[in-house]
Amino acid sequence: MASQISRHLRTGQTGEQLAAAYLQQQGFVILRQNYRYKRAEVDIIAQKDRLLVFVEVKTRSTDRYGYPEDAVNARKEALLLSAAEEFILQEEWPHEVRFDIISVTLTSPPAIHHIEDAFY
């Protein structure tokens, strides 16, 4: 059981690293990773010019059981929104905000699917 949990965590960490590198290649600056507020966590907070993007990263080792982004449900969206609201207040961010999902499938090579404006 412990090996399954550690493998799951490694899979998630690998996906987040790939997503952060992908965003940087797209011209984003990574402001925070694993930002926590109460029970919520934002995987990546990135900025490009006057756009602040809150990113939920979902990673799977295969798409055999569905696509990673399918795991983002209404509860996860609500938690992400509450953490984003707190971050925006703390930073006094006055510009545009967007919520994205980056789906990573750890095939060879890894498949990265960036869904912009995934929810509001």
Describe this structure in words.
The protein is α+β, with helices and mostly antiparallel strands and 120 residues long. The chain is built from 2 helices and 5 strands, in the order αβββαββ. The protein is 35% helix and 36% strand. A 5-stranded mixed sheet has the order 1-2-3-4-5. The mean pLDDT is 89. The protein has a single domain, classed as Trna Endonuclease, Chain: A, domain 1 (3-Layer(aba) Sandwich). It has helices at 2-25, 74-91, and strands spanning 29-37, 40-48, 51-60, 96-105, 111-115. It is globular, with a radius of gyration of 14 Å.
| Range of strand content | 35-45%
Low-confidence parts: none
Largest sheet geometry:
5 strands, mixed
- Name of the top-level CATH class: Alpha Beta
Examine the secondary-structure arrangement and name the CATH architecture: 3-Layer(aba) Sandwich
Q: Domains counted in the coordinates: how many? A: 1
Tell me the distance between the termini.
36 Å
String of helices and strands: HEEEHEE
Q: Give the fraction of residues assigned to helices.
A: 25-40%
Concise synopsis of the structure shown:
By secondary structure, the protein is an alpha+beta fold.
